[in-house]
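Q: I have 227 residues here and want to know how they pack in 3D. Can you give me a structure?
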Amino acid sequence: MGNKANGRHIKRLASSKYMAIGRKSSTYIAKPLPGRHTKNTNIALKTVLTEKLGLTSTAREAEIVIKNKNIKVNGKIVIEPLFPVGFGDIINIENNKDTYYINTNKHGVFSIEKQKESRSLFKVVGKYLSKGKIPMVRLHDGSIMKIKDINDVMVNDSVLLKDGKIGSVVKLAEGSKCFVINGTHASESGTISKILKGTATRSTLVTINSGSTEFETTLKNIMAIAD
């Protein structure tokens, strides 16, 4: 049987399309730890530094930078080189004070862009009351955060995070602006003109007007954004 790598690496040829990496430059690439985002929509932090930003020339150099507490993700220092990052995450480079936003392009794969401040939208995928009746929300990246009032936010709304804390809530409803995060129309944006509630056999469908065209996608593929 052929070598299938180990728990910390995967073969480049077997890596997810989302990573959008060179598949023949070497045999292996770092495998992101589980727990944040879904299996095929994240990438290891040290891979971002070497292959996406070009801040380090080797994975070893990237590990040193990370372990020296030079990198923040969503306002928190990260010292794990295999820490998974994906859509909506904010990466701060402490040495040069640069800030980067993880986005998705029209092909539905990883893209990264520089921005001026550490703020990002996250989709709410669940909410509940924890022990002591503390209101909590679960975000699309797998993180869990406390919110002031559980009635302020609904599942599928978005919350604005700034420096690792929840700020305002962006409602998802007919007339709301939205961004497509997955599917054929990934990276497109527009206004929600109609929401068709799902059934036991069909997902909730959303009709989006992007100005020149109108298209339909499922509710799980979109995120509400601010005007």
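Q: Anything worth noting?
A: The mean pLDDT is 87. The chain has three domains: 9-115, 119-170, 177-224.
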